[in-house]
Structure formats: structure tokens, C-alpha cells
Amino acid sequence: MARGIVAIDGPAGAGKSTVARQVADRLGYLYIDTGAMYRALTWKALMLGVNLEDENALTALAANTDVALTGSGEGQRVYVDGREVTEEIRRPEVSRAVSLVARVPGVREEMVCLQRQLAAGGRVVLDGRDIGTCVLPWADCKIFLTASPEERARRRWLELKGKGYEVSFEQILAEIRERDRIDSQREVAPLKPAEDAVVIDTTGMTLPEVVEKVIRLCRDKGCEPVERRGDGS
Ligand code: DC
After folding, report:
1. For residue 191, how far is its CA from the centre of ligand 1 (angstroms)?
2. What are the extents of the domains in the chain?
3. pLDDT tens readout for residues 56-80
């Protein structure tokens, strides 16, 4: 019987987190943003001035850092050693550095362990790069969301502009391409669809269309919505 484990993987800017949040909300499942965990560690490494080429230092940092997520959906908060960093981890300097941290095997081991603990109870939607291939190969429903690099850069650019950051579209596109390159070429858990994942190219699709499609696929795989109580809770 399906335990309600939904894995949503894909490259930067494909809309994973927005889709995963809405799918989790509709199903009444817990949303787990695994990219936020790598970002949280990257934020700490930048704060401490850790050399991002030093794998041993990053592995030690991961082993000695408490990364925690609370809440779900839009209300998810991210903490590093008890300090809230929900906003800080979205800064462009963190986005630029995170692929370097995420490629370190020792860092990934720590994060995967934590992600499996968080997902153990089922009824979860995780988004990331390697959820269907490495973290939870036993997931009930695996989705790989993608879109053209230009479309993904356009979405990120609009998002950052909306937050007041002055960034050029060309720079974002170059960074997306560079992150794709590092994420898909790294030795451990490279970005690629699981063999049994359904690949959805979201270029030209609206958000509600993507969410509907994912919900349908989840239900086909036996991931049913949690019964909500009559009082709406
Ligand atoms: O989804 P995001 O942009 O917040 O992810 C940040 C980085 O973390 C990205 O460069 C890839 C990495 N990542 C990963 O390697 N494995 C995951 N499960 C999630 C994210």
C-alpha cells in the first residue's frame, strides 16, 4: 500500500518548490524543501568563511550543524543551529555557492540521512535533485519537472526582481546554466530523472495545469489526500 511518498526532482527554476508546496497542501501532506537544507549549510559556510573547495571542512561543517525545517507549505521556516535563516538562504550569493557545497559526498550523506528521517512517516512531498534516484528510491510517485533554461531564468529573474534584487536576465541565465552543469555532472547523485519518474516539461504550461497533472499522477500511484476534519483543520 502506498505510504504517500511523493518525490519531485528537476533543475533550478523548473518550478519544483511552488508545485511541490501546492501539491502537498492539496493532499494534506508535509512539504520538505531539500534544496533549502543545502542552502542553509551554504549560508553557514559563507558566514564562517569556510573555503568552498575544501571538502573535509564542508563535511565537518555538515556533521556539526543542526539544520531544521518547521511548518509546511508557504509557512515553512528554515533554521541553522536554532537561528532562523528562511530569507537569507534565498540571497543570490547563496544561490551562486550552493552547488559547490551540494557536490561534496560527506555533505550529501548528512543531508540524505536527515531527509529520510523526515520522510519516514510517509504522507510527504519532497523536492530536490536526487529524491527519486537516491534519497527515496522507494517513493510511490516520482516526478521530474523541467523547462527550457531560458524559461527557468525568466521565472527566477521575475521572482528576484519582485523581491527587490537588481539582477540582469543574462546573469541569471548564465548562473542557471552553470548550476545545471555542476548539478548534472557531479559524481554523487547527479541530477537526472529516475528510470520510473514521469518527466513533465513545464515550458508553456501554467502553474495550475502542472499542479493538476502532478496530483493526478499521485492519485494514480495510490497517494490519496489525507481526510480533513469537518472543521477545516
Ligand atoms: O532547489 P534549490 O535551488 O533550492 O537547490 C539548491 C541547490 O542544492 C542546487 O544547486 C542543487 C542542490 N540540491 C541537491 O543537490 N540535492 C537536493 N536534493 C536538493 C538541492
Report:
1. 9
2. 5-220
3. 999 999 999 999 999 877 788 999 9
